[in-house]
Amino acid sequence: xxxxxxxxxxxxxxxxxxxxxxxxxxxxxxxxxxxxxxxxxxxxxxxxxxxxxxxxxxxxxxxxxxxxxxxxxxxxxxxxxxxxxxxxxxxxxxxxxxxxxxxxxxxxxxxxxxxxxxxxxxxxxxxxxxxxxxxxxxxxxxxxxxxxxxxxxxxxxxxxxxxxxxxxxxxxxxxxxxxxxxxxxxxxxxxxxxxxxxxxxxxxxxxxxxxxxxxxxxxxxxxxxxxxxxxxxxxxxxxxxxxxxxxxxxxxxxxxxxxxxxxxxxxxxxxxxxxxxxxxxxxxxxxxxxxxxxxxxxxxxxxxxxxxxxxxxxxxxxxxxxxxxxxxxxxxxxxxxxxxxxxxxxxxxxxxxxxxxxxxxxxxxxxxxxxxxxxxxxxxxxxxxxxxxxxxxxxxxxxxxxxxxxxxxxxxxxxxxxxxxxxxxxxxxxxxxxxxxxxxxxxxxxxxxxxxxxxxxxxxxxxxxxxxxxxxxxxxxxxxxxxxxxxxxxxxxxxxxxxxxxxxxxxxxxxxxxxxxxxxxxxxxxxxxxxxxxxxxxxxxxxxxxxxxxxxxxxxxxxxxxxxxxxxxxxxxxxxxxxxxxxxxxxxxxxxxxxxxxxxxxxxxxxxxxxxxxxxxxxxxxxxxxxxxxxxxxxxxxxxxxxxxxxxxxxxxxxxxxxxxxxxxxxxxxxxxxxxxxxxxxxxxxxxxxxxxxxxxxxxxxxxxxxxxxxxxxxxxxxxxxxxxxxxxxxxxxxxxxxxxxxxxxxxxxxxxxxxxxxxxxxxxxxxxxxxxxxxxxxxxxxxxxxxxxxxxxxxxxxxxxxxxxxxxxxxxxxxxxxxxxxxxxxxxxxxxxxxxxxxxxxxxxxxxxxxxxxxxxxxxxxxxxxxxxxxxxxxxxxxxxxx
Length: 884
Fold this sequence. Notes:
Elements: E1 4-5, E2 9-12, E3 20-31, E4 40-43, E5 46-52, E6 55-61, E7 70-71, E8 79-91, E9 96-99, E10 106-112, E11 117-122, E12 126-127, E13 135-141, E14 155-158, E15 164-173, E16 176-183, E17 192-199, E18 210-211, E19 215-218, E20 228-230, E21 236-239, E22 245-252, E23 259-265, E24 275-278, E25 280-284, E26 290-297, E27 303-312, E28 320-322, E29 337-342, E30 349-354, E31 360-365, E32 373-379, E33 398-399, E34 402-408, E35 412-415, E36 423-432, E37 435-436, E38 440-445, E39 462-465, E40 470-473, E41 484-490, E42 504-511, E43 518-521, E44 534-535, E45 540-545, H1 547-551, E46 559-567, E47 574-575, E48 584-587, E49 594-595, E50 600-605, E51 609-614, E52 622-625, E53 629-637, E54 642-652, E55 663-666, E56 671-674, E57 680-683, E58 691-694, E59 698-705, E60 711-721, E61 728-732, E62 737-742, E63 749-753, E64 768-771, E65 776-786, E66 789-799, E67 810-813, E68 820-825, E69 832-837, E70 843-848, E71 853-857, E72 864-872, E73 875-883
Parallel strand pairs: 12-19, 21-29, 39-54, 55-60
Antiparallel strand pairs: 1-7, 2-6, 3-4, 3-8, 5-6, 8-9, 8-10, 11-13, 13-16, 14-17, 15-16, 17-18, 17-19, 20-22, 22-26, 23-24, 23-27, 25-26, 27-28, 27-29, 30-31, 31-35, 32-34, 32-36, 33-34, 36-37, 36-38, 40-52, 41-45, 41-50, 42-43, 42-46, 44-45, 46-47, 46-48, 48-49, 51-53, 53-54, 56-58, 57-59, ...
């Protein structure tokens, strides 16, 4: 068995004497009855800063491996021991500060025994009021219960108060049992501090009798009373639907208590059916009295409730009631102050009269305090079901067969779209925050007339082309698209806003089925103009908008209200409802809308067209159609008048245009493109005629329009190709090899005939090389083709032997030649002769060689192969020359 003393801690902070610079713990351990020895001093090293709330302290702690680490049971004998400690710290100013429990030091005791130990733990702190049914857990160490069958007779209560006994003992496990107490309520006024439980050894495996640790039972002095009274001392009166929440204040005439409550109920003397709220301290009163309050909410039901407070010393102690503004110590409820909820006043008068076969006019005079009403209507039958209190109804909703037709405060409403010769019954209710008065009844009947109408014009019958559509437009603006609301904000109850140059409305919508702040628009502190208002006068700012466009919520949504606050340019100032300190609210479910406070007012302009219905069941101002047929529309305005019109839409095929296949045109040919017979034409070459003549390549597009306004188009590609031209040149690169260089144009295919036998020797496109087998004269022909035809080009070439070419270094160029032929020798010769012969051997030229460079004109010679001979210093050389 071990019991360790490990460490100590000191928290320090700067004070008037200077910062703590060192800390230590002093301890000693001694047995009960022995003379205590000297203290052992142990330094506590600085460990770290310790942040607690707004304080930053320093922690001095001999954490491992510097901890004390003493096993208090080493060498210990059975008995009770004491561990006594105190702390000291030294300041930078040299002062030693002690923490020693007022010089008594801090002492902890422990008992060491070799026997098993029985520990008793009650389920909660025991007092005179909670002993009945109290459970005490008995846990054993170093032994265990012999079996699961426990005999309550072997369990004894030591020093119990009178009337406290054991009612049951329950086996929990080998090391744990539970003792259940019973108490007859006998009064005792002195705390029991040495209460314990003994268990006979027969219940344990080792057979040793055991007694638990001592426990305390707190007595309650029933003679102590509590004085209290109500600080809130008013009778309140409210109407159904008004705010039913109130702060109720109470004062308690002592420093401490176990619990205080404030509540309300229908009985002034019986508290059992009251609704009680825990009260919280909010300030001290005179003579250190304590003031508490609670925020209670009474139900929205017609009738009267009382309110009062109560307090007690202990959790189960006597309750003392604050019944009135007078101080008392009464333990009986006798409430005197009330909160009365009154019926909503109904409208003072109402009437209904038929206007025609489809409309009934309804007039009413509202109560001066509550101007908003809701009207429900039912054809033929009397309305028997009233709206449910606290429930929001939108126009169009049905209440047991009756339709909600109006919510607002206009004093007049025209019920429209009715059946001929039919009686309609109406119930009119004053409304206040979704609570309703008793109904005011009226009725009227329609006659057999058609009702009022207005002109609605869709225009002439229209044509629509296959694959396209046409827009049918009524030219009307329907609710809510044309509605405009102007919000006015009076700053008179917000002094911080009086001198501002810029004010923003920061708002969000409350949609049916949504949250209270959706689609928020306004100033997030960026001063970006979103929601910026215009100054109307010295104290008033205004902004106008269409809610649907402004907030951008879906058009099919039902707008119930707008929540809003007002801000300055950087968002640091916020104006809310000055009465509730909650956001302003504009109720949009009534017409005109109603604000939650008089500092915000509204102007609401509704478009006159209430609804539109097409034969396609669409409800928008315009529709797009792409199929033939008859289309009709009916529109109803706020006065119940209707406008009706019908238009026929004819469907026509798209014009078929055929410019033909893409074409290839040779040379300078022209192409005529014909679009066919239609109402009008538009070509991409700025022509508006049926036909055009083209001689340039490119893409040609025509768009045609028929008599119905339908359009079609076609595209054709015209490709112009020049005729082919064959041409080549050549050069002899050896005795038998010739290099042919192609210079043809517009050629797609090639055919070479190198020997004049009309047989194709090669189809290589471009330059080609050919080697002849023997000397001679050859006719070479190149034939090229493309889509527009073919062309041929021929040359006569000569393949001759050349002798002595290396004896005299001579250069002859150009070869072939067409004008001037140049002969260049490697040195100046004085004794030489030059001759030129045609292919038949006829001498054409004889010239003495008297220069290193010799030029002569060959332009007058016919094209063909020629032989040039030189005779220099008895060396004769022959050269073949080609003249073009």
